[in-house]
Amino acid sequence: MGFRRVRVAVLGAVLLAAVSCSREPEAPPPPAALSPEVQANLNQVMRGILFPNSNIIFDAQDTDPGAPPAPDASASPYAGTYGGWEAVENASMALGEAANLIALPGRTCQNGKPVPLQDEVYQKGIAGLRAVAQEAYKAAQAKNQDAMLDIADKVTQACATCHDVYRDKIVNGQPAGMEARCTP
Question: Which residues contact 146 (CB under 8 A, 6 or more apart)?
Answer without folding.
Answer: none
